[in-house]
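dumping this here so i dont lose it
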C-alpha cells in the first residue's frame, strides 16, 4: 500500500526532461543540482534523446555520488547501531573506493570484494593508522571530497595477513563486532549487512542439525533442571547450532588495544574462556562449517559454493557466491534510490536485477543505474 502511494506520487511529479533529470541525479547522487547546473542541462538533453543510461552515468560520475550517496549507503552497514550519522571510517571509505573504476582494467571492481577482497585504502598516499581513526575523522571534519586522486586502493590489507575478507576485516567492523563478545557478532552482522537477514530469521530449530560446535560458554540447561534443558533445546540451540560453527571463521581474529589483531594458529582467548558446560565444543582452529542450509535457509540463502572452509576470507567468499548476496544488494540499492522497499509483487524484478548484477561483474554503479532506470522506480525512462 505504502509502495503504491509512493509510486503514484513519483508519477505525479511531472514529466518534463529537466524534472526527470533532477530526479535521476538527486536519487542516484543523493543531492539536488542547482537549476542552472550544466550537468542538469546535459542530463535533460540525454533524456530527451532517450539516452537514459548516459544520463544516469552523469550522476554516477559525480563527486556527489561517492561522497554523499555512497557515504549514506555504506555508513549504516559500518556500525552496530546501523545509523548513518557517523564519521568517516575505513569500512565506508573502502566501500566508496571499491566503487571507483579500476585504473588497471578500466572496469568497475566487483562488489564481492567487500566480503572477500584483500585490499586497503590510502588517503593522499598515506596508510591509515591501525589503532585510530584520526586521519579519516579529520578528512570528514574538513569536508574533504574523496576522489580517485586522493583515495586509492592498494594491497595487501595488512602485512603478514593471509585472511583479508574485505570490509569484514576492517578496523571499523572489528571494532564494532569483535569487542565485548566472542566473535559471534561478526557473523551475525556480516549476514545482516551483506545477506540482509537477522539471526532471528535464519536460526533453525531442526533437531536433526547437530549442535556439536556449540561451545562451552552456552549453558545447556540455563536456569537448571528439566525446564533449563528444554529451554536450551527449543531456544538457545536454534541460534547457536547454526551460528557457532560459522563463528570459528574468525577464531584467529581479535581487536586489541584499538587495533585489529590476527594470530595464525592461535584461537582468540575470549572464545574458549567461559565455561558453563564442560562437554561443549572447544575451538581449536579456524575451520568453519555452514549448517544454515536446510529447511527455510536453503531458499533464503541460495548457497552456490563450498559450505566449509578455514578463516574469514573463505567465509566471505561463501557469502559472495550466494544468491542472497546479490539480491540483498538489489534490495538495498532499490530502497536507497527509489526510497521504498521492494514489495512482494516485485520478486521477478528483484531476481532479474540480481542476476544482471552478477552477469555485470557485480558492478555497484551498474546496479544503481539499472535500479534507477527500472520502470517502477523513478519513471525517468519510458
Ligand atoms: C536469536 C538467536 C539467539 C538465541 C535464541 C540465543 N542466542 Fe546466545 N547469542 C546469539 C548471538 C547473536 C550472540 C552474539 C551476541 C553479541 O556478541 O552481541 C550470542 C552470544 C551468546 C553468548 C556469548 C556471550 C558473549 O559475551 O559473547 C552466550 C554465552 C550465549 N549466547 C548463550 C545463550 C543461551 C544460554 C541462550 C538460551 C537461553 C541463547 N544464547 C540464546 C544469538 C542467540
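and the seq i came up w/
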Amino acid at each position: 500500500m505504502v509502495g503504491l502511494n509512493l509510486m503514484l506520487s513519483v508519477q505525479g511529479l511531472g514529466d518534463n526532461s529537466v524534472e526527470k533529470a533532477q530526479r535521476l541525479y538527486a536519487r542516484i547522487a543523493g543531492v539536488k543540482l542547482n537549476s542552472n547546473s550544466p550537468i542538469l542541462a546535459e542530463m535533460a538533453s540525454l533524456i530527451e534523446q532517450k539516452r537514459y543510461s548516459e544520463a544516469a552515468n552523469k550522476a554516477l560520475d559525480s563527486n556527489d555520488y561517492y561522497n554523499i550517496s555512497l557515504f549514506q549507503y555504506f555508513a549504516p552497514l559500518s556500525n552496530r547501531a546501523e545509523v548513518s550519522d557517523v564519521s568517516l571510517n575505513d569500512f565506508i571509505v573502502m566501500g566508496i573506493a571499491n566503487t571507483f573504476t579500476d585504473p588497471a582494467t578500466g572496469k568497475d571492481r566487483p562488489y564481492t570484494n567487500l566480503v572477500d577482497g584483500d585490499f586497503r585504502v590510502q588517503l593522499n598516499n598515506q596508510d591509515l593508522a591501525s589503532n585510530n581513526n584520526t586521519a579519516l575523522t579529520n578528512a570528514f571534519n574538513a569536508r574533504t571530497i574523496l576522489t580517485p586522486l586522493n583515495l586509492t586502493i592498494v594491497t595487501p590489507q595488512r602485512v603478514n595477513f593471509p585472511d583479508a575478507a574485505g570490509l569484514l576485516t576492517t578496523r571499523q567492523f572489528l571494532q564494532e563486532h569483535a569487542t565485548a563478545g566472542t566473535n559471534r557478532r561478526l557473523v551475525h552482522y556480516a549476514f545482516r549487512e551483506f545477506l540482509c537477514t537477522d539471526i532471528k530469521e535464519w536460526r533453525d530449530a531442526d533437531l536433526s542439525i547437530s549442535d556439536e560446535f556449540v561451545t562451552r560458554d552456552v549453558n545447556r540447561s540455563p536456569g537448571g533442571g528439566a525446564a533449563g534443558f528444554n529451554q536450551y533445546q527449543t531456544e538457545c540451540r536454534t541460534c547457536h547450532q547454526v551460528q557457532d560453527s560459522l563463528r570459528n571463521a574468525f577464531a584467529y581474529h581479535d581487536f586489541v588495544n584499538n587495533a585489529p589483531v590476527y594470530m595464525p594458529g592461535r584461537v582468540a582467548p575470549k572464545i574458549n574462556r567461559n565455561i558453563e558446560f564442560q562437554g561443549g565444543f572447544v575451538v581449536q582452529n579456524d575451520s568453519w562449517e555452514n549448517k544454515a542450509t536446510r529447511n527455510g535457509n536453503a531458499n533464503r540463502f541460495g548457497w552456490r559454493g563450498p559450505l566449509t572452509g578455514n578463516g574469514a576470507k573463505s567465509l566471505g567468499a561463501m557469502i559472495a557466491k550466494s544468491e542472497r548476496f546479490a539480491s540483498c544488494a538489489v534490495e538495498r540499492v532499490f530502497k536507497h534510490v527509489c526510497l521504498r522497499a521492494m514489495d512482494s509483487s516485485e520478486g521477478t524484478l528483484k531476481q532479474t536485477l540480481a542476476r544482471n548484477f552478477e552477469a555485470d561483474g557485480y558492478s555497484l554503479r551498474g546496479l544503481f543505474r539499472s535500479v534507477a532506470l527500472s520502470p517502477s522506480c523513478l519513471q525517468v525512462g519510458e
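The two ends are 24 Å apart (CA to CA).
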